[in-house]
């Protein structure tokens, strides 16, 4: 699956994790993936498969559209 704007996604992923005050290990454990794999998503070096993207969206309570297309740093409610 190609996400498109991988930089926006990786920035948003890092932002929501920081905002939730969670470590990469904590999030990756919850998503049932390795920390190394999760780290690659935040670095923009890899894109998650669709089922992991859905898990991420649900875990952080952020729509997939917002994760992929918006700059979440500019949203006040996140």
Automatic annotation (TrEMBL):
<keyword id="KW-0238">DNA-binding</keyword>
<dbReference type="GO" id="GO:0003677">
    <property type="term" value="F:DNA binding"/>
</dbReference>
<protein>
    <recommendedName>
        <fullName>HTH cro/C1-type domain-containing protein</fullName>
    </recommendedName>
</protein>
<dbReference type="Pfam" id="PF01381">
    <property type="entry name" value="HTH_3"/>
</dbReference>
<feature type="domain" description="HTH cro/C1-type">
    <location>
        <begin position="13"/>
        <end position="67"/>
    </location>
</feature>
<dbReference type="InterPro" id="IPR001387">
    <property type="entry name" value="Cro/C1-type_HTH"/>
</dbReference>
<dbReference type="InterPro" id="IPR010982">
    <property type="entry name" value="Lambda_DNA-bd_dom_sf"/>
</dbReference>
């Amino acid at each position: 699956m190609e996400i498109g704007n991988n930089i926006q996604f990786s920035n948003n992923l890092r932002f929501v994790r920081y905002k939730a005050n969670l470590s990469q290990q904590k999030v990756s454990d919850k998503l049932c993936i390795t920390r190394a794999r999760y780290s690659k998503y935040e670095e923009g070096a890899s894109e998650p498969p669709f089922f992991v993207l859905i898990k991420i969206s649900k875990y952080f309570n952020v729509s997939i559209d917002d994760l992929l297309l918006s700059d979440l740093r500019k949203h006040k409610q996140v």
